[in-house]
Fold:
Amino acid sequence: MTFNRRRFLQVTTAGATVLASGALGTSALAAPGGFPDYRYVRTLLRPDRLAYNPTGEIIFPCVRGVYDRLSAPLGRYYLYYAPHDAPGGICLAYAESLEGPFTEYAHNPIVGRTWNPHYDVSHVSSPHVLWHAERRELWLYFHGENTTTRLARSKDGIHFTYDKTVLTTDMLPDAREASYARVFRHDLPARGARYVMVFMRNTSADRRDICWGWSADGRDWEFDPRPLVGPDEVGAVNLSGPHLLERGGSTYVVYHTDKGSGGNILITEVGADFSRREHLGVFYDSGSAAPENGRAAAPCFGTDRGVPYMIYEAGDRLGGVIAMARG
Structure:
């Protein structure tokens, strides 16, 4: 599927005429694929207002509703995030609503760059947390170094037990980095799989694409050697921050481009079995004003009392905030 810039512009123009109503499905128009037309509302976390702030930057939010899953949680919602640069550190904030305010956990980081005897690395970052219903656990996928994605598991979302390495660059062709992974419960019967991983690969050409893999148990994985979405296919230099969404019996991957390629969040339909490649255009158009400053990245999604939200990075890479948009 080739990139159609005219279609991108048509989709963006149509989406820009809509003001979000605050309720799912009530906007006059919708984003590509029939998704809500998300609009920036407010900043949730700023690094300069956090007690744990070793590098002045934070990235890669992941929000999870825990009010119906954990006993005595700190709040209805847990928001995981991290600095990227050394030493990094997986962090937690919590709130009663996805609107915030979010309170920083007093003992961040909950996972550090050294975890004896499992690893001792320069940094850990990019937390993605999956609710594993059968185990009744929160499974944390994170990277450290950028060549390695790891798994840890928890009963309370705060205290984690190390499990194993799930992805390294050795498992992929022409890979210098394999990180920013998110994992989702998604059945692929033909592959004997119940989980799907999407992540960023950096190649020897220093070009970043979106790759994917599948697993029966969320621990042991197989990976497609071909990219799920390549930057050339959508008119970009680099892609990262993928997330899966499902709607109308199909599956979509959303991901962001580098700022020089627009700094927007794009969407591609991959179908229920990941055999489709339909590039649908701009899912979220980053604004030129603060806090986005021409870049929106690494989205995650949640619904609070029927209202859809997108939590994402807003601003320059390693110089932004965690923001919230409402659909």
